[in-house]
Amino acid sequence: MKARLRRLLGTPLHPLLERDIYLSHRDLPEVLDRYERGDPFFLYTGRGPSGEVHLAHLLPFELSSYLQQKLGVEFWVQVTDDEKFLFQGALSLEETRRLGRENLLDLLALGFDPKKTHILFDTASIRSLYPLALKVAKRVTYSTAKAVFGFTPQNNIGSIFFTAIQSVPAFLPSARAGRPVPCLIPCGIDQDPHFRITRDVAEPLGYPKPALIHNRLLPGLSGEEKMSSSAERKDGVIFLNDPPEEVDRKLSRAFTGGRASVEEQRRLGANPEVCSVWALWRSRFAPDPKEFAEITRTCRSGELLCGECKRRLIPRVQQFLGEHARRRADVERWVDSAIVDGPPGGTA
């Protein structure tokens, strides 16, 4: 698959593809076949605004930005302020709306074409979402939703209906165009179950099954399998609004694949595959393939110690966050105009 992507996108591929951070897919060849026959696909991904954006949240948006720039395709993003309100009891609807718009600024600052970027902000765009959501909901039984998502009698009825809302962006461009338009969804591998129902109902509704491309989960800085911003894990993530001194503090304490002593590491080398610092180098902070290969080689050989590796990474992350903040200000000028049916009340 990578050889085919190189022919289409050029060499080298984005590090997320070249280094197998995107590791699996559903029906990606079919989408590429249609694209090469002159039938472009559109991209769809989303964000559930439960808190501030951190580095792991960027993965599907980075790939989407790259593909839009390379192929000129349309990009649809769903902001599920309703979902987070329904599933997280501590969040008010006003707070999920506020977070949704703030999150959008962070995510779109990665670089998107405003003329080809469309935002479905659920509570604001419901007029466009609801008719198709009803058609999806009519095809999905409660037993199916319960089997896929593990609903219990304690779940509110809004959370049970939400899967229909989440399916709509995969079909809406086709409905608007009056013809089948292929869809590609970049997402974390843990999100795949959410789109099983979407794929199951697509063809009965007269739409193409959306294709998916899955990324690995970026590990937390404290050694967790998944970078998570839950209250007890704030030190395990780099937020996009972290000040330079906070980046320094978090990365200086980050979990690595090093040995118990300098002498042992010099002799045996470290294990980059379990290291949260190496995972950051791999994802975006060593775009040069030669530099990344050298970091990996010297880590394994014991030439590069963990402290020095962290000291090299810290200014890269700080620079990225500083540049990102400047790009974020540019998005402010056009984000509201890209929201289907207009921005949500109280956020414009």
From TrEMBL:
Entry GO MF terms: ATP binding; tryptophan-tRNA ligase activity
UniProt entry tagged with the keyword Disulfide bond: no
Gene Ontology cellular component annotations, sorted alphabetically: cytoplasm
GO process annotations (BP): tryptophanyl-tRNA aminoacylation
Pfam families, sorted: tRNA-synt_1b (PF00579)
InterPro entries noted in UniProt: aa-tRNA-synth_Ic (IPR002305), Rossmann-like_a/b/a_fold (IPR014729), Trp-tRNA-ligase (IPR002306)
Database matches in SUPFAM superfamilies: Nucleotidylyl transferase
EC assignment: 6.1.1.2
The keyword Nucleotide-binding is annotated on this UniProt entry: yes
Keyword line: Aminoacyl-tRNA synthetase, ATP-binding, Ligase, Nucleotide-binding, Protein biosynthesis
UniProt family annotation: Belongs to the class-I aminoacyl-tRNA synthetase family.
PANTHER family per record: TRYPTOPHAN--TRNA LIGASE, CYTOPLASMIC, TRYPTOPHANYL-TRNA SYNTHETASE
Name of this protein: tryptophan--tRNA ligase
Natural source organism: mine drainage metagenome
